[in-house]
Amino acid sequence: MLQVTQIREHKESFIAALKKRNFQAEELFEQVLQLDETRRATQTELDNTLAESNKLSKEIGMLFKSGEHEKANKVKAQTGSLKENSKKLSEKLQQVEEKINQILYTIPNVPHESVPAGISEDDNEEIFNEGDIPVLAEGSLPHWELAKKYDLINFDLGNKVTGAGFPVYKGKGARLQRALITYFLDKNIEAGYTEYQVPLMVNEDSGFGTGQLPDKEGQMYHVQNDDLYLIPTSEVPLTNMFRDDLLTEKDLPIRCTAFTPCFRREAGSYGAHVRGLNRLHQFDKVELVNLVKPEDSYETLDNMVAHVKNILRELKLPYRVLRLCGGDLGFTSALTYDFEVFSTAQDRWLEISSVSNFETFQANRLKVRYKNKEGKKELVHTLNGSSLALPRVLAGILENYQTENGIKIPEVLVPYTGFDMID
RNA sequence: GGAGAAAUGGCAGAGUGGUCGAAUGCACCGGUCUUGAAAACCGGCGAGGGUCACACCUCCGGGGGUUCGAAUCCCUCUUUCUCCGCCA
Q1: Residue A54 approaches strand B within 7 Å at CB
Q2: Nearest nucleotide, C1' to the C-alpha of A60?
Q3: Which A residues 236-295 have CB within 7 Å of strand B?
Q4: Is A416 exposed, middle or buried (0-12, 13-18, 19+ CB in 10 A)?
């Protein structure tokens, strides 16, 4: 969420920037600033009241000690109204703070200056593309057909065991997926990331920390008996590890990577676009999370983009990079680059990575700060990105690498798979 | 799952109702001494809010309560440890 102090200082420019998202902030900002006035005034009043009663309490203590009980009781009688008053004030304070937060929760992050205005994904800006789109032979198949033909993925079994959106990977399909995971992790480690294995379920605090709660509650699977949520991405546990932390300058940058399954309810998504591996309830993903000093965050974002490009280049997949427009930008992000790989058989682009800079938006809610050179506390900037989401990469490989004799394995993966052909 | 014990500053560890935001030791920072370092000695040293700076307020695992006053008493939750049971 945004910081009240920032809103106060940059009100006009924030309002203008948020318009790129088609978000009208003016009125909400006014409300927040007004409530914040009340908050501060109430705080001061409460502090003074408490100071007064602290003083009296001390006095009573000393009087009792010196045996002046009568006097002490007299002073005691004065404390009643103070107590009542401070109770009222602290209730009011709580209410006001609650109200402020309620509003702040509804305001998305301020888009970076480079973010184009726009309404939908059609307005995203393609900034890069690479890799030739292969011309496939007659009779080439979409990945779900290939998966069936070569017995790589069994959707029916998943249906039987669990339900739609939970495929079973089998044989070379399973091994190819495992190879990709290991390959991605190795690339990330090579780039300076530390590998983590994190819990797949998180508590409510973590859900709030990264902003899945309270709004996107429907996106996550909820284990009611224990009040835990299955993670929709490892960003949630990875980032929440640092919740409420006060870091030192030399702790930064923090670079984490993790492979986890991800669970998404994806309520309301049906149709041809969710066919096969396009959209699943459970899928694997390797994630990158960076916590950096504010002044370093955009360089870090560029590095992450370059890193993901490099992986796709090595895999020799045709892909493009989009700068998301305001309308398509995620709630918490200031600037996001999406990576899409071309699905030849489906003749469409599939999103396989999303790399974002959240600036302080996440850190503010999570209270992740560090002590800068001057010893002042500052919120860190957080960034994350996928490297990569497995199913669609798999889909891309199956479709783009299919030949009449079978599916070739990208060269860089052969050491990981132990085979170079699926046939 | 059952029974018991515990949770205090970076760490260790005092503190069972009243100048306790918290003794002491270690670590850390600054200084004296030294050619330099170590030792010794002197000083400083938790966090958040607030202020130009003070004042002042809040925080002793989390939440709630009793009291004029809570680290200290009560309730509750969480976590850790020990013992028993179960288990990949």
Answers
A1: yes
A2: B68
A3: 246
A4: middle
A7: helix, strand or coil? helix
- State chain A's mean pLDDT as an integer: 90
* Pairing verdict, β A153-154 and A168-169: antiparallel
The interface predicted TM-score (ipTM) is 0.82
Please give the torsion angle defined by the CA atoms of residues A50, A52, A54 and A57, in that order, rounded to the nearest 10 degrees.
-130
Please check whether strand B approaches the CB of A83 to within 7 Å.
yes
Locate A217 and state its tokens.
Answer: 């509650």
Q: What is the largest CA-CA distance in chain A?
A: 103
State how far the Cα of A34 lies from the Cα of A30, in Å rounded to an integer. 6
Our CA dihedral for A310, A312, A316, A320, rounded to 10 degrees, sits at -110
Judge contact between A387 and A258, C-beta under 8 A.
no
Do the Cβ atoms of A322 and A308 come closer than 8 Å?
no
Q: How long a stretch of residues is chain A?
A: 423
pLDDT in tens, A156-180: 999 999 988 899 999 999 999 999 9
Residue type, A274: V
Confidence of residue A232 (pLDDT cuts 50, 70, 90): very high
**Whole-number Cα distances in Å, A347 to A132, A136, A286, A407:** 14, 11, 25, 18
Answer yes or no: is A43 CB < 7 A from strand B.
yes
Residue A187 near residue A387, CB atoms below 8 Å? yes
Predicted TM-score (pTM) of this structure: 0.90
Peptide bond between residue A199 and the one before it cis (omega within 30 degrees of 0):
no
Give strand ranges (E) for A88-182.
125-130, 153-154, 168-169
Integer Cα distance of A23 and A41 in angstroms: 30
**Taking the CB of residue A359, how many other CB atoms lie within 10 A of it?**
25
A38: buried, middle or exposed (CB in 10 Å: 19+, 13-18, 0-12)? Answer: middle
Does the structure show a pLDDT above 70 at A271?
Answer: no
Q: Is A110 helix (H, G, I), strand (E, B) or coil?
A: coil
Q: Is the CB of A16 under 7 A from strand B?
A: no
Q: Report which of A362, A105, A104 is spatially closest to residue A235, judged by C-alpha positions.
A: A362
Helix (H, G, I), strand (E, B) or coil at A158: helix
